[in-house]
Amino acid sequence: MSLVLSLDFQYTTSIEKLWSALTDSKKLAKWVLENDFEPIIGHRFQFRAEPNEYWDGVIDGEVLRLDPPNSLSYSWAVGAEKHMVVWTLKDLGDGKVNLNLNQTGFSNVHGLEGAKHGWSQWCGQLDQVLV
């Protein structure tokens, strides 16, 4: 059975600035991890963190879908776990944008809870990139 993580975040910004924070490699590095992401369908990339005793620090991905500035999806693979991440942006008006994250493919609750904690922390830092 595959478990699904779904989170919503609201930001006071334009949808274009939020899109840029999701698709610009340098901006992604400021709120997620170092990477070689490019917003090109089929582009294979990696997020990289410091390795530790539990993990080599590498997340492999491939851009699967782009619909600027509304949605972006990519694969997310760590070891044997292979997920799909889908970001959906919605302009709420009055300078506010909703960012929805759906990550599918979790094989256990432990992984889902870890991802929930990680994304909540990362998305909490996203405001720094939107100024």
Mean pLDDT: 95
CATH top level of the domain at 1-31 and 76-131 is: Alpha Beta
Report the count of strand segments: 7
CATH topology call of the domain at 1-31 and 76-131 = Alpha-D-Glucose-1,6-Bisphosphate, Chain A, domain 4
Strand coverage percent: over 45%
Order of helices and strands: EHHEEEEEEH
| Helical content (DSSP H or I, runs of 4+) | 25-40%
Count, helices: 3
Gyration radius, in Å: 14 Å
* Poorly predicted ranges: none
Q: What does the main sheet amount to?
A: 7 strands, antiparallel
The CATH superfamily of the domain at 1-31 and 76-131 is known as: START domain
Description:
- By secondary structure, the chain is of the alpha+beta class.
- It has a domain at 1-31 and 76-131: START domain (Alpha-D-Glucose-1,6-Bisphosphate, Chain A, domain 4, 2-Layer Sandwich).
- It has helices at residues 15-23, 25-31, 109-125; strands at residues 3-12, 34-35, 44-48, 58-67, 71-78, 81-93, 96-106.
- It has a 7-stranded antiparallel sheet.
- β6 (81-93) and β7 form a beta hairpin.
Short structural summary:
The chain is of the alpha+beta class and 131 residues long. The protein is 25% helix and 45% strand. The chain has helices at residues 15-23, 25-31, 109-125, and strands at residues 3-12, 34-35, 44-48, 58-67, 71-78, 81-93, 96-106.
Layout of helices and strands, plus pairs?
Blueprint (H helix, E strand, L loop, with lengths): L2 E10 L2 H9 L1 H7 L2 E2 L8 E5 L9 E10 L3 E8 L2 E13 L2 E11 L2 H17 L6
Antiparallel strand pairs: 1-7, 2-3, 3-4, 4-5, 5-6, 6-7
